[in-house]
């Protein structure tokens, strides 16, 4: 995790040889599903690979990839802890996220789909801190984060990527009464309630979703999956065991993330075809 927090690229280790004899046996055509496994071997070089770029909320997805939940699909991950949508417009941001992402995004590689996950830090921290410091409306600060995020996506499109997948920011999990004890020092000064931060996150996702629609970018929103319909807040089963941890529970969230991403990528919906 230390390497990930520094924004370094992780790649799967070892290849098929490292899987061991038991795992390799699953590749051998059997009586049931053998033809599917055989086709998978032949078409593996033609399969699109994924390039995950985001903040620490990518951890459950990358954990699912490490566990083999993405099947034969290859992936890389640039996880920059504390990265924000707002910071994508600042080459000298504290996390350096913009430069770290661009280093792996450019030049675009064939059959690679960038997958972005940002915004939780904006909606639960940056927007409120900037609003308090400058005396501005949180809604105005939210618009600035969305605008910078979409401008960065425009750059990625202009570089030549045919398909991009953007994931909606996850819902906040830490109760307002616990924020003064939060693991992140910056979050201890946040006075907004959990419901206020949740509503801001929903507005952020709606605005980014509309921007993606206009640009022909795929947007995957799992807000309904994380939400308890009786409270409108994040469901208890997706909260981390540590009440001060602002991330979703990895064990509960990983299969939900992976299944949804795999469904979203099942049928190629190229940008040019949608615009036609």
TrEMBL record:
Protein origin, superkingdom: Bacteria
Region called Disordered, residue ranges: 1-22
GO molecular function: hydrolase activity, acting on ester bonds
Protein's UniProt name: Uncharacterized protein
């Amino acid at each position: 995790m230390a390497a990930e927090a520094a924004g370094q690229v992780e790649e799967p280790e070892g290849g098929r040889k490292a899987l061991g004899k038991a795992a390799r046996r699953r590749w051998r055509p059997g009586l049931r599903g053998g033809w599917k496994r055989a086709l998978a071997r032949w078409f593996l070089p033609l399969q699109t690979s994924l390039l995950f770029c985001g903040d620490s909320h990518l951890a459950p997805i990358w954990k699912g990839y490490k566990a083999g939940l993405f099947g034969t699909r290859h992936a890389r991950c640039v996880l920059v802890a504390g990265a924000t949508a707002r910071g994508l417009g600042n080459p000298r941001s504290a996390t350096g996220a913009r430069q770290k992402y661009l280093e792996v995004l450019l030049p675009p590689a064939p059959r690679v789909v960038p997958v972005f996950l940002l915004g939780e830090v904006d909606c639960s921290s940056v927007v409120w801190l900037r609003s308090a410091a400058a005396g501005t409306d949180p809604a105005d600060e939210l618009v600035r984060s969305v605008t910078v995020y979409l401008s960065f996506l425009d750059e990625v499109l202009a570089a030549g990527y045919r398909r991009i997948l953007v994931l909606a920011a996850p819902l906040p999990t830490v109760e307002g009464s616990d924020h003064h004890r939060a693991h992140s020092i910056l979050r201890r000064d946040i006075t907004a309630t959990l419901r206020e931060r949740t509503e801001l996150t929903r507005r952020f996702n709606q605005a980014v979703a509309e921007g993606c629609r206009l640009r022909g970018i795929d947007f995957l929103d799992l807000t309904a999956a994380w939400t308890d319909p009786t409270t409108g807040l994040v469901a208890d089963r997706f909260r981390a065991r540590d009440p001060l941890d602002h991330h979703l529970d990895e064990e509960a969230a990983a299969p939900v993330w992976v299944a949804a991403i795999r469904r979203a990528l099942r049928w190629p919906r190229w940008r040019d075809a949608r615009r036609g």
